[in-house]
């Protein structure tokens, strides 16, 4: 078993994801939203890249529209990209149509992979258990921020790798995977995440409770999976 890491949605190499098990990470905040919504009873999440596509799908039946542009709620959408909005009374037994600046793009660009799992800090241990059971080579895809490397996703990658190695120390790591693990070990309290550009953007918007929530470890024990255009 081998683990590799890609640093942003814009760095996804199709040849390196085809037939692989992928873990997509966008902890601030798309994959945290998806994991929370599914955990709270959401029937399925349909990730799309463009706002217009989300609106078109929404016209086909009862659903919730969620997402962001530049970390702000999209006009006409039901919810923003705050996981705290996706409570059980809002999402239970509903479809969520979602579009974000980074996370949904990363998910869609991984199409063709054997498995596409949704990971975040809040379900990292569950993700590690899942990939160990699959016994496949893993590529951890960081959504990043507007095509660029993002500290927050990279540290989350390191934590997932740490959890995997706890159970199987013989797993092979690429150099970038080793680096992610090293960075996490220097900041196991996650304090270094506060240096991330995107973290600071969300902080400037006053969304401190979102940051606190998304930086919690292992509070959810499910692993949503993207199959045929839907996350369940």
TrEMBL record:
Its EC number is 3.1.3.71. Signal peptide: none annotated. Keywords: Hydrolase, Magnesium. Its cofactor is Mg(2+). The keyword RNA-binding does not apply. It catalyses: (2R)-O-phospho-3-sulfolactate + H2O = (2R)-3-sulfolactate + phosphate. NCBIfam families: PRK00886.1-4. Belongs to the ComB family. This is Probable 2-phosphosulfolactate phosphatase.
């Amino acid at each position: 078993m081998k683990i590799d890491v890609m640093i942003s949605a814009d760095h996804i190499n199709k040849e390196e994801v085809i037939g692989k098990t992928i873990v997509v990470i966008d902890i601030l905040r798309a994959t945290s939203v998806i994991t929370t919504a599914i955990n709270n009873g959401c029937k399925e999440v349909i990730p799309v890249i463009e706002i217009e596509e989300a609106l078109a799908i929404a016209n086909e039946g009862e659903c919730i529209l969620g997402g962001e542009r530049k970390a702000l709620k999209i006009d006409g959408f039901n919810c923003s990209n705050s996981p705290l909005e996706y409570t059980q009374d809002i999402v239970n037994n509903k479809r969520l149509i979602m579009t974000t600046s980074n996370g949904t793009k990363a998910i869609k660009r991984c199409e063709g992979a054997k498995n596409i799992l949704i990971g975040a800090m809040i379900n990292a241990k569950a993700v590690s258990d899942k990939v160990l059971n699959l016994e496949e080579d893993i590529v951890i895809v960081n959504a990043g921020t507007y095509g660029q490397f993002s500290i927050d996703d990279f540290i989350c990658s390191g934590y997932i790798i740490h959890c995997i190695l706890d159970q199987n120390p013989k797993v092979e790591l690429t150099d970038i995977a080793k680096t992610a693990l090293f960075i996490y070990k220097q900041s196991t309290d996650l304090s270094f995440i506060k240096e991330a550009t995107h973290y600071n953007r969300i902080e400037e918007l006053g969304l401190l409770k979102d940051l606190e929530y998304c930086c919690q470890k292992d509070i959810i024990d499910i692993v949503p999976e993207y199959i045929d255009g839907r996350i369940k």
